């Protein structure tokens, strides 16, 4: 479950294998999709599958081939504009909200481009293997894997806009359910170590390792379930401003939010949840998913006063979560592989944080404002991205990602 692999010790052949595996997994994810499915963009936050396939290829072309390949030339220099996501250091870019309008290049051409870049990067690995090249390709692989999760969340959102409710791939990415009774566990308090240390791959935002101070607290042994969330709804939780942050209440009123994203009802009024498996009866024992930070925060305040056994409930800080996860590394207690878990921590740099050098410096650091940290990993997260120090982050209103919550409380 935990990624302890150090790419730094890989041989050229082993790196080549990891590289090809990660490339193949991206195209495998689109095998159940038509060219039309890969083209459409459902909203500004989401990108077309074709764009994801192209953008991760652009990353290798610009970050790896351009600086390392002798006599480098672009496959098509216009693509550097079309498929740049947010790297101002590289130049101008196509507007994010209009990615779905890029009917050219076709999916076929994007796949040809992918093959060309993959072959050229493979040649570099064979002929110019070095520590520096290995580090860049390690980043390229991790970057592509992050986009594999986004590709799934974006297809999920796209298909949810279709009243046919198409199933992407039954049972391939469902959130596993458990009937574990809720229990408060003693959190790790006092001065705790936080952040990544060691040789394995990690993003710059996971370090440096430092100390954080956790007050005495307790933390939930499992995630909040759909059954518990339904109680919140049935108690009028979405209609009572008392539970909501002011910005959250304003968001709820404008967006007319009254349930988690993807909840709906059939003609018999039975509750359903649309997932990549299709539109299925809501699993009451599964963790609630696709809620915003505003909703997670409001739920915790409501639960504190209304849900038996949950007095004092609040969201955990990211350091309470991390300290808890480090004592539960067997993957128990719903830490990984179900839903990302909102924390009450703002996405800030750790003390002593330094972004990576060069263009990759734009990867994380410039987003450290107006976002909240999520910990854990989801059912859509590729292998190797479940780490106790991994910091995901989204704005307070975002809920198209696989996001849920666990509760904490002050004291024991
Ligand atoms: Fe990216």
Brief summary:
This protein has 412 residues and is of the alpha+beta class.
Structural key phrases:
alpha+beta; 2 domains; paralog of FGE (formylglycine-generating enzyme); 412 residues; Four Helix Bundle (Hemerythrin (Met), subunit A)
Question: Describe it for me?
Answer:
The protein has 412 residues and is an alpha+beta fold. The chain folds into two domains: 7-160, Four Helix Bundle (Hemerythrin (Met), subunit A) (Up-down Bundle); 184-410, Alpha-Beta Complex (paralog of FGE (formylglycine-generating enzyme)). 34% of the residues lie in helices and 12% in strands. The protein has ten helices and 13 strands. The protein has helices spanning 12-29, 35-39, 49-68, 79-82, 107-127, 131-160, 226-234, 246-255, 293-306, 318-326, and strands at residues 184-186, 190-194, 210-214, 217-220, 263-265, 271-275, 278-281, 313-314, 340-346, 372-375, 392-394, 403-404, 408-410. Strands 1-4-13-8 form a four-stranded antiparallel beta sheet. It has a four-stranded mixed beta sheet with strand order 11-10-9-12. Strands 5-6-7 form a three-stranded antiparallel beta sheet, with no helix packed on it. It is globular, with a radius of gyration of 22 Å. The mean pLDDT is 95. Residues 55, 85, 143, 147 line the site of fe (ii) ion (FE2).
């Amino acid at each position: 479950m935990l990624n302890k692999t150090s790419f730094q010790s890989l041989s050229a052949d082993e790196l080549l294998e990891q590289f090809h595996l990660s490339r193949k997994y991206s195209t495998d994810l689109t095998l159940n999709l038509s060219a039309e499915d890969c083209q459409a963009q459902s909203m500004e936050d989401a990108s077309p599958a074709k764009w994801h396939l192209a953008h991760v290829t652009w990353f290798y072309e610009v970050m790896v081939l351009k600086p390392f390949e002798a006599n480098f030339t672009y496959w098509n220099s216009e693509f550097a504009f079309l498929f740049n996501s947010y790297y101002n250091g590289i130049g101008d870019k196509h507007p994010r909200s209009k990615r779905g309008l890029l009917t050219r290049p076709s999916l076929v051409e994007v796949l040809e481009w992918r093959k060309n870049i993959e072959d050229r990067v493979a040649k570099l690995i064979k002929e110019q293997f070095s520590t520096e090249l290995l580090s860049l390709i390690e980043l390229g692989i991790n970057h592509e894997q992050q986009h594999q999760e986004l590709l799934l969340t974006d297809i999920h959102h796209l298909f949810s806009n279709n009243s046919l409710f198409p199933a992407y791939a039954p049972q391939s990415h469902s959130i596993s359910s458990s009937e574990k009774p809720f229990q408060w566990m003693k959190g790790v308090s006092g001065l705790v170590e936080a952040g990544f240390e060691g040789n394995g791959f990690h993003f710059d935002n996971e370090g440096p390792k430092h100390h954080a101070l956790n007050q005495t607290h307790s933390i939930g042994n499992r995630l909040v379930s759909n059954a518990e969330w339904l109680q919140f709804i049935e108690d009028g939780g979405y209609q009572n401003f008392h539970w909501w942050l002011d910005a959250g209440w304003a968001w709820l009123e404008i967006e007319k939010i009254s349930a988690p994203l993807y909840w709906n009802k059939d003609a018999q009024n039975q509750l359903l949840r649309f997932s990549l498996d299709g539109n299925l009866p809501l699993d009451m024992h599964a963790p609630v998913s696709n809620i915003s930070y505003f909703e997670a925060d409001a739920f915790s305040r409501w639960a504190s006063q209304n849900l038996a056994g949950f007095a004092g409930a609040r969201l955990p800080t990211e350091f309470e979560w991390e300290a808890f996860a480090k004592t539960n590394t067997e993957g128990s207690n719903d830490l990984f592989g179900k839903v990302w878990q909102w924390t009450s921590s703002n996405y800030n740099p750790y003390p002593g944080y330094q972004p990576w050098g060069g263009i990759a410096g734009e990867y994380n650091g410039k987003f450290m404002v107006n976002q909240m940290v999520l910990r854990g990993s989801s059912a859509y997260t590729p292998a190797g991205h479940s780490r106790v120090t991994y910091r995901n982050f989204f704005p307070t209103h975002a809920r198209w990602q696989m996001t849920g919550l666990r509760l904490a409380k002050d004291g024991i």
